[in-house]
Specification:
The chain is mainly β. It has one domain: Clam (outer membrane lipoprotein receptor (LolB), chain A). The chain is built from three helices and twelve strands. Strands 7-8-9-10-11-1-2-3-4-5-6-12 form a twelve-stranded mixed sheet. Strand 3 and strand 4 form a beta hairpin. The longest helix is centred in the N-terminal third of the chain and has 12 residues.
């Protein structure tokens, strides 16, 4: 499931974050509350332990409160992920399969979805610390981690680290904040003649 959320990429180990305090968590939640929607292009890199790039993907990302996500990576590794607050659809055109998950169940496995919910109960499961112009968010039990970098209160970098050490880095470009995004963007129509694996 973790690989699904992070566009089926392989990544590497990362050091443990410092423990956080409530003031850092509140500051991050306050910053996230200011963003009602976000649209961006992204470059996604997977690196090995020596920092060598193993894979590069590009695509588009849209976030909209309270819990909507659209994620599209381009060919040759095309995939689409859509979340509407209740379900997450992951579509891989190459294998002609759509997998459906309950979004609530995926927050612990995907701290990226935590960004959409600045006040949710899920935050109780995370420690937050701030250093070097980055917020470090770490799950208290499963070890999943998230790094968020802001420039002028605009999210510009996201790094996701899973408990087993997988690391995926996203650089956001052409970021647009708080622009209108139609709810239709977060409706996924299952293509004809594809396999559907409903795990929701």
């Amino acid at each position: 499931m973790k690989a699904v959320v992070f566009a089926m990429v392989m990544a590497v180990s990362f050091n443990v974050f410092a423990s956080g305090d409530e003031s850092d968590k509140q500051a991050l939640q306050s910053l996230l509350k200011q963003t009602q929607s976000l649209s961006a292009e992204f470059e996604q890199q997977v690196k090995d332990e020596q920092g060598e790039v193993l894979q590069t993907l590009s695509g588009t990302l849209k976030l909209k409160r309270p819990a909507n996500l659209y994620w599209h990576t381009k060919e040759p590794d095309e995939s689409v992920m859509v979340a509407n607050g209740k379900k997450v659809w992951y579509y891989n055109p190459f294998v002609e399969q759509v997998t459906i998950y309950a979004q609530q169940d995926m927050v612990d496995d995907s701290p990226l979805l935590l960004v959409l919910n600045s006040n949710g109960n899920q935050w109780q499961n995370y420690n937050v610390s701030f250093r070097d112009n980055r917020y470090f968010v770490e799950h208290q039990t499963n070890g999943s981690k998230l790094e968020l970098r802001f420039i002028d209160e605009k999210l510009t970098e996201i790094t996701m680290v899973q408990a087993q050490g997988e690391r995926t880095e996203l650089m956001l470009n052409n970021v647009a904040l708080n622009e209108t995004i139609s709810d239709e963007q977060f409706v996924f129509d299952v293509p004809a003649d594809v396999d559907v694996d409903d795990q929701s």
